[in-house]
């Protein structure tokens, strides 16, 4: 379509803040890239209310993490941090991104999490995925698009999953992508203590992913949840 990006993304992952996607499904994105699929991250906010770091530094860290995970595109919608509202305007903007990049798979944060922005992000993306397929729902020049699969990933929590992606062979690259966020995950004497910058943070993430992996008999896994059954042609 004239005036609209022709870049097609296979997997499009949404997060409320830069680093959410890396925590939950960084390995999944890299693994799919290595098997020939295009991937992208869309952050809803710049994380400007974070206790540590600055917006400019977070932007640099996000770019480095994206480089490590080899995403084709990183988008930031610039919504206010702690200002996600499920407003029609915000959901329409997410819908436009989905219609522009036309992903087969969309990923979003699980709907139960200690951070309200993560919860809202998941809810908003779910609405946008639904709206994106409605021909008579106009959000701009982009044509309607039906996403094949919508999955939800865990950031802070751990629970029942419907799918586990084996990320054992790319796990150290996932850790490197997380380590790019020095301002968030590595505490110095000048920084405020937070739930994500104590000395056990990386151990907790690794432990969670080891638990997901244990469910399916691999070293490391990333767990995903669906809201609808997955159709398969047969059980064999």
At CATH level 3, the topology is Rossmann fold
Model regions low in confidence, pLDDT < 50 over at least 5 residues: 1-5
User: What is the terminal-to-terminal distance?
Assistant: 41 Å
Which H/E pattern describes the elements? EHEHEHEHEEHHHE
Description:
Mean pLDDT is 94; it is low at 1-5. With 236 residues, the protein is an alpha/beta fold. A 7-stranded mixed β-sheet has the order 3-2-1-4-5-7-6, sandwiched between helices. It has helices at 20-34, 55-69, 88-101, 116-132, 171-179, 182-185, 201-216, and strands spanning 11-15, 39-45, 73-79, 105-109, 149-153, 163-166, 221-225. Helix 1 packs across helix 5 (171-179) and helix 3 packs across helix 4. The chain is globular and about 55 Å long. It has a single domain, classed as LmbE-like (Rossmann fold, 3-Layer(aba) Sandwich). It contains 7 helices and 7 strands.
Essential attributes:
globular, 236 residues, Rossmann fold, alpha/beta, 7-stranded mixed β-sheet, 38% helix, 7 helices, 7 strands, disordered N terminus
Draw up the topology in text:
Elements lengths: L10 E5 L4 H15 L4 E7 L9 H15 L3 E7 L8 H14 L3 E5 L6 H17 L16 E5 L9 E4 L4 H9 L2 H4 L15 H16 L4 E5 L11
Helix pairs in contact: 1-5, 2-5, 3-4
Quick structural overview:
A seven-stranded mixed β-sheet has the order 3-2-1-4-5-7-6, sandwiched between helices.
